[in-house]
Amino acid sequence: MEVLKEGFFGSIHSVYSIAIIIIPIMIALQVLKDFKILDKITKPFNFLSRIFKTSDEAVLPLLVGIIFGLSYGAGVIIQSAKEGELTKRDLLIITIFLATCHAVFEDTLLFVAVGANGFIIIGTRLVAAFILTCFIAKKTSVVISLNANNK
Questions:
Q1: Is-above-0.85 flag for pTM?
Q2: Which residues form the Nucleoside transporter/FeoB GTPase Gate domain (predicted)?
Q3: How far apart (Å, rounded) are the C-alpha atoms in residues 55 and 46?
Q4: Which residues contact 96 (CB under 8 A, 6 or more apart)?
Q5: Measuring CA to CA, which residue among 70, 21, 64 is closest to residue 41?
Q6: How far apart are CA 10 and CA 14, in angstroms?
Q7: Alpha carbon distance 151, 54 (integer Å)
Q8: In whole numbers, what is the pLDDT of the chain averaged over residues?
Q9: Interacting residues of 129 by C-beta distance below 8 A, sequence separation 6+
Q10: Which pLDDT belongs to residue 145?
Q11: For residue 88, is it left (φ>0), alpha (ψ between -120 and 50) or beta?
């Protein structure tokens, strides 16, 4: 019984810990979006949407996932999807990139703390994610155009 109690309260604590980080991030992002500041922040990275053949709206969730990781980036991705800003293809491309390369700073700092070269870690992860995502983005464009022709 004690194990269940510890598990329950541990889970509640974990959800609370995540919520106190995600909720302020979501509020801040909404305020930045309302004042059109996010457009200015993401604009320099819109080249990614052209490379991956996604909408410009896919850039923000991608950046949040790269910087903050999947746990926190998921909130932005889900919100963007619910608001109808992202297509299914956008979601696929974002997911593929972030599966390969997420929480870049956090993870890298953990490995640097035990003696790894941070530049090699970041470089390898970004290059691998970029190559994989470009490859799949190109293939999904072909599949999407073939499906469109069959209708």
A1: no
A2: 16-105
A3: 9
A4: 132, 133, 136
A5: 64
A6: 6
A7: 22
A8: 87
A9: 97, 98, 100, 101
A10: 53
A11: alpha
